[in-house]
Design goal:
Order of helices and strands: EEEEEEEEEEEEEEEEEH
CATH architecture: 6 Propeller
Shape: globular
Number of strands: 17
CATH superfamily: TolB, C-terminal domain
Largest sheet: 4 strands, antiparallel
Radius of gyration: 21 Å
Number of domains: 1
Strand content: 35-45%
Number of helices: 1
CATH class: Mainly Beta
């Protein structure tokens, strides 16, 4: 697994938590970096680089480990995600004056660029089969999840964005706490969101705590050992 530190260093560690974290970037970077996505073949990591205004760079994980510029513009690029087949890179940029979701071919990102969202968009996410691209739009305290159908193939072909649902889900409007705060299940039918507490559709929060003592003795009585 990959993670970033407060001082802008990128680390990786075994997903089961064993072993010690290993720094993938400089221990005292002049420009802070933060990881976004790993290519399907595990050879590249997309990083956010900068402070205040951000660009995207690629970290090569071969024997000659190094970073190279990926998308560097006068604008801010954030929240990059590589498609499951490794063919496309989705990200957000404020180049139009507001945040929108764009897609470029990967790794040849300079070839062409397509705008996916139509009226604002942040935090893109690919479905596991690559046939949908999700993103969020925000208005006030509410967030709306959008879906764009993607036609698989060697050329880019996307349909019209449609609304899936809205709610008071957790997101950050500005600042470096920009990371994606939702995910989709492998079958594409369920979403994991962070929802504000205390909504009208949520059960009341309990103010009591129940402590059960000698529960193992009770368990033996209820389920005798054969």
């Amino acid at each position: 697994m990959l993670f970033g530190s407060d001082n802008g260093v990128v680390f990786w560690q075994a997903a089961d938590g064993t072993g010690s974290p290993e720094a993938l970037t400089e221990n005292a970077p002049t420009t802070p970096q933060f990881p976004y996505a790993v290519s399907p073949d595990g050879s590249r990591v997309i990083l956010r680089e900068g402070s205040g205004s951000y660009d995207l760079v690629v970290l090569l994980l071969g024997n000659d480990r190094r970073t190279e510029p990926l998308i560097r513009t006068p604008f801010t690029e954030l929240n990059a995600e590589i498609s499951p087949a490794g063919r496309w890179l989705a990200y957000e940029s404020n180049e139009s004056g507001q945040r929108e979701v764009y897609v470029r071919p990967f790794p040849n990102v300079s070839a062409v660029r397509w705008q996916v969202s139509g009226n604002g968009g942040t935090r893109p996410l690919w479905s596991r089969n690559g046939r949908e691209l999700f993103y969020m739009t925000t208005a006030g305290a509410e967030a709306t999840l959008m879906s764009v159908p993607i036609q698989p193939g060697a050329t880019w072909s996307a349909g019209t964005p449609t609304k899936l649902f809205s709610g008071r889900f957790f997101f950050t409007e500005t600042g470096i706490g920009e990371g994606r705060t939702y995910d989709v299940s492998p079958d594409g039918r369920r979403f994991l969101m962070i929802k504000e507490a205390g909504g009208s559709d949520q059960p009341a929060i309990s103010t009591s705590l129940i402590v059960v003592q000698n529960w193992f003795t009770e368990l033996q009585q209820r389920v005798p050992v054969k």
